[in-house]
Amino acid sequence: MNDLAIHLTDEKGKHLYEQIYEYIADEIREGKLLAGEKLPSTRSLADYLQVARSTVELAYEQLLSEGYIESVPYKGYFICRVEELYRIRTDEDGESGRRKTQRPERAAEAAQKDCFSEKRERSFDIDFSPNAIDMSRFPFGTWRKITRDILSGDRTELFALGEPRGDAALRETVCRYLHASRGVNASPEQIIVGAGNDYLLLLLQYILGRDITAAFENPSYRRAFRIFSSFAAGTVTVPSDENGIRVDGLSASGADVAYVMPSRQFPTGTVMPIGRRTELLRWAAAAPGRYLVEDDYDSEFRYRGKPVPSLQSADTAGRVIYIGTFSKSVAPAIRISFMVLPEGLLGAYEKNCGFFSSTVSRIDQTILNEFLLSGAFERHLNRMRKAYREKHDLLLECLQPLLDRFRLSGEYAGLHVLLTSKDPAREESLLERAAACGVRIYGLKEAALAPFETDCATVLLGYGGLDQEKIREGVRRLDKAL
Amino acid sequence: MNDLAIHLTDEKGKHLYEQIYEYIADEIREGKLLAGEKLPSTRSLADYLQVARSTVELAYEQLLSEGYIESVPYKGYFICRVEELYRIRTDEDGESGRRKTQRPERAAEAAQKDCFSEKRERSFDIDFSPNAIDMSRFPFGTWRKITRDILSGDRTELFALGEPRGDAALRETVCRYLHASRGVNASPEQIIVGAGNDYLLLLLQYILGRDITAAFENPSYRRAFRIFSSFAAGTVTVPSDENGIRVDGLSASGADVAYVMPSRQFPTGTVMPIGRRTELLRWAAAAPGRYLVEDDYDSEFRYRGKPVPSLQSADTAGRVIYIGTFSKSVAPAIRISFMVLPEGLLGAYEKNCGFFSSTVSRIDQTILNEFLLSGAFERHLNRMRKAYREKHDLLLECLQPLLDRFRLSGEYAGLHVLLTSKDPAREESLLERAAACGVRIYGLKEAALAPFETDCATVLLGYGGLDQEKIREGVRRLDKAL
């Protein structure tokens, strides 16, 4: 079986795991490895190739997620039938087939899952996705009424292209909302409205330039990492501890920009205490051109204690770029996010990308503005907070029997909690055991930006999209399986 | 008067005109040049500085457009009151004040004007903007009804994030529409839906890479040029003739990508004949990595002869990237554009930016899809074509008395025509004379990507946004003034 003649090189920009992944994927595509064949265990292949076991695990994960291989609990990894693979015609430039085997629908699904690579298709009865939200409670009636009222006015101006930064009225409202709820200090001029976080992060290449090194915690929000990687001269991962990103590591990294989620780090759920925040702000202020990108993605949902104010609210040096979205709090399809720029960056914005047309229709901006102004948003948030808290509390109650084997963290906020095994355990094995009983849970390493080692696996259980019955039943099954 | 001690340098990346502009703007901001003072004429300053007169003209144009100076017909250029200037606080990095004096509202207005730098605010009775469209005929009723129907279904899935490329249903419809109306050959997989042309052009940095040199005609669509300039290793302008971009010039330029508008070049109105198209496609196919970006921005409006099929329809080598928008044909606020990628670029798209979330809400995509499928779009287009043709015909009729002095071009399509003076004339002077009688017309040089010389000025008259009475009255005034 160890006839995998993988030749690992120091090829620039290619991780070892990628090389292993590509070698095996090519072998499968070329029919050299046949359906049903068993792959060596991660341990034995790691021994054979003289690499860390986690490197092989990462390669296998990628193969699993792209449907090349499948994992059979207690048995190992097996090659899938290659006819099942979807192929996009090879392009004329003869680029490697990497990534092209992804099915378009799967790519879409992956994007929707936001930060987790998609798993091999498989049916799950219960999906503890940390990204799912509860759309069943969306106030369609209110939204519809606002839309109807706005469209009834024959307001021709709404069909005209608006300001690049977003409509003044919406920016004014967002500004007041952010100040009241998150302590954000800004004027409406500093707010840029855009169609989603991805788009706003893309704009940073024009505002900060591409000659930056961006630092991320590991694990972190993988999509943001990929976007920064797409334009920044460098990206680095920096160690973190129970208080969040380590500032000594950040200083040592040579980065000028750090992407952080102080209110609640994804996926770890860490809330950054004031001490670390101060350190971080001091780091940023210590040299010109240093900036902190604060992604305040789900600050709305906290179920205990006082809300944590934003990092931006404590920033006196103008070094925090604050990003927020209405995707979690209203609906993912709304496609309205916003960015608060420090005054010092407005010149660069105006000069380098201030002429880009707005990516959000004025009708949508007007509907959202009315949704906020009318109080409907606040009522909706309160309703959702209550609904999510009930799910959260129920989940915690159900998880009690597992707490002899697992340590719970990340509770009392957001839409997921984390379970860390007390005894050594492999993440993949936990996910597999859950999957075997029809339950999908998520691994911390799936949000890894670079391979990391841990003896005791951590899994994520999201509850936003599940009803009470599913939560009860899901945990019941997990209790037996894990 | 010639006390403008401008020191011109070969400073990297700074045009001479920029240096002149910055010097004068600084003098005004610092109060060294006072309101009411007269600037030297462009001729005398050009003599004094030993630069081309067009260089000084470009600097003055910029100053005019940003409200630093104003032009008084037959008298010259005068400094404006500095208190009228809007200032954004100077940022801490001590960046030059350039561009920061732009009023936000003006910036918005400029963006809306798409390709023309905004003029000093001034009241015009009649504005022959080439970018204005007639929104008074937008079928609000139909749009409202479709929206209501869609929102009434409690279709929760519409509020979920959709596929990065756009909803499959909409891509399918656009695909069929493009094939039927523009001869575009593509499968729905090749279509990327995005929030506006600017966004789609931005994606090209991921699909084509940044190591490209992009060629443009001069004049051309300035916004597209600025976007390419924001990421491409190089941008060049290439000579054009009455058939469009010159392929010998393109070959000589070393460019790999050319941005063209074969159906109707903006602003010249040139329709590229089949011979030049073939040459262009041959150029693209002659070397790997060469691509043509076809912006088919207002192909819908032709008033005589058969519609010109798209360049893409004749492309057998997969070298045309086709871009279209619903901004002109539906409404600018719809914010839905689309790009048709050659199959050979799908791999790069998928790999480098296929994970970016869609920038268009699913609700908007569904409304537009229904608008297209129901036949409402076709009816609307036919109605608009008729309305615009009537305006076009009336304009041509009214322009008869001017044709002793001007040569007409760019008629029978689009939403503007061009007038070129038969006798030597300066563009600025024509615009000024029109402005003096309350009529705003636009100069060809305002769409210049680089200064160009011409003895006989060309001005643009757009009619999309004007009613019959305005057209009549506007031309009456122009006849007297020019």
UniProtKB/TrEMBL annotation, chains A, B:
Pfam family, one: Aminotran_1_2
Domain HTH gntR-type: 14-82
PROSITE patterns: HTH_GNTR
Domain of life from the UniProt record: Bacteria
Region (Disordered): 92-112
Keyword terms: Aminotransferase, DNA-binding, Pyridoxal phosphate, Transcription, Transcription regulation, Transferase
Gene3D superfamilies: Type I PLP-dependent aspartate aminotransferase-like (Major domain), Winged helix-like DNA-binding domain superfamily/Winged helix DNA-binding domain
InterPro entries found in the cross-reference section: Aminotransferase_I/II_large, HTH_trans_reg/aminotransferase, PyrdxlP-dep_Trfase, PyrdxlP-dep_Trfase_major, Tscrpt_reg_HTH_GntR, WH-like_DNA-bd_sf, WH_DNA-bd_sf
GO molecular function: DNA binding; DNA-binding transcription factor activity; pyridoxal phosphate binding; transaminase activity
Family statement: In the C-terminal section; belongs to the class-I pyridoxal-phosphate-dependent aminotransferase family.
The protein's name: PLP-dependent aminotransferase family protein
Organism: Candidatus Eisenbergiella pullistercoris
Species classification: Bacteria, Bacillati, Bacillota, Clostridia, Lachnospirales
